[in-house]
Amino acid sequence: GEDVEQSLFLSVREGDSSVINCTYTDSSSTYLYWYKQEPGAGLQLLTYIFSNMDMKQDQRLTVLLNKKDKHLSLRIADTQTGDSAIYFCAESMDSGAGSYQLTFGKGTKLSVIP
Amino acid sequence: NAGVTQTPKFQVLKTGQSMTLQCAQDMNHEYMSWYRQDPGMGLRLIHYSVGAGITDQGEVPNGYNVSRSTTEDFPLRLLSAAPSQTSVYFCASSPDETNTEAFFGQGTRLTVV
């Protein structure tokens, strides 16, 4: 079955770059996503990348996709204390029933040290 | 726009009780889903719907029922609550099947004692 793996914790100093890594097993993934969850809140979609892309940049966020190694990363430039949260990697693929089902990793807790 | 609204935010049930978790969205999204989030785990899909009148099972459907009589509402029913259903439940909606614009509710924290 599908599996999405992430490291559980990452700690960085304010102003440094953060890199959160994710590996997935299903080569038929169509979209790959990064979600952010702040304490007591729901998930917020940060960005996504289509599987035929290598890179996507959106302000401080850069997503890199290595399809050969099934590796996805999220780089946050100039990390701020407000970036402290849990970041979830997710993949989706066509279920064949008209819906793309999301499979989530366990989440990486990012702690930003002032 | 309110987005995706879940009620209640917190609930404590006794084993064997039944209840319905409510989810409503005002964005006219066709696709809605229910997930549960357990400590140290990612979200797992319980049930989903691709439109009014259509529902299907996700990864962990046992013990839960859903219905989709309107586009706006997608309630999740626990027929006979068990301690294993203690979790945080999230409802999500999306305008299309790709989930590239998915919105999540704030979650319902359920404890079954």
Notable characteristics:
heterodimer; A: 114 residues; mainly beta; 6-stranded mixed beta sheet; 5-stranded antiparallel beta sheet; 11 strands; B: 113 residues; 7-stranded mixed beta sheet; 4-stranded antiparallel beta sheet
What is the general shape of chain A? globular
What's the end-to-end separation of chain A, in Å? 40 Å
Query: Stretches of chain B where pLDDT falls below 50 for ≥5 residues?
Result: none
**Percent helix range of chain A:** under 10%
What fraction of the residues of chain B are assigned to beta strands by DSSP? over 45%
Q: Please count the beta strands of chain B (DSSP E, at least 2 residues each).
A: 11
Largest interface: A-B, 27 and 26 residues
Q: How many beta-strand elements of chain A?
A: 11
Taking the sheet with the most strands of chain A, its summary is:
6 strands, mixed
SS-derived structural category of chain B = mainly beta
Ends apart, CA distance between termini of chain B:
36 Å
User: What's the helix count of chain B?
Assistant: 0
Q: What is the rounded Rg of chain B?
A: 13 Å
Largest sheet of chain B, in brief, is: 7 strands, mixed
Structure description:
- The complex is a heterodimer of chains A (114) and B (113).
- Chain A is mainly beta and 114 residues long.
- Chain A contains no helices and 11 strands.
- In chain A, strands 2, 4, 5, 9, 10 and 11 form a 6-stranded mixed β-sheet that branches. Chain A has a 5-stranded antiparallel β-sheet with strand order 1-3-8-7-6, with no helix packed on it.
- Chain B is mostly beta strands.
- In chain B, a hairpin with an 8-residue loop joins strand 9 and strand 10.
- Chains A and B meet through strand 5, strand 9 and strand 10 of A and strand 5 and strand 10 of B.
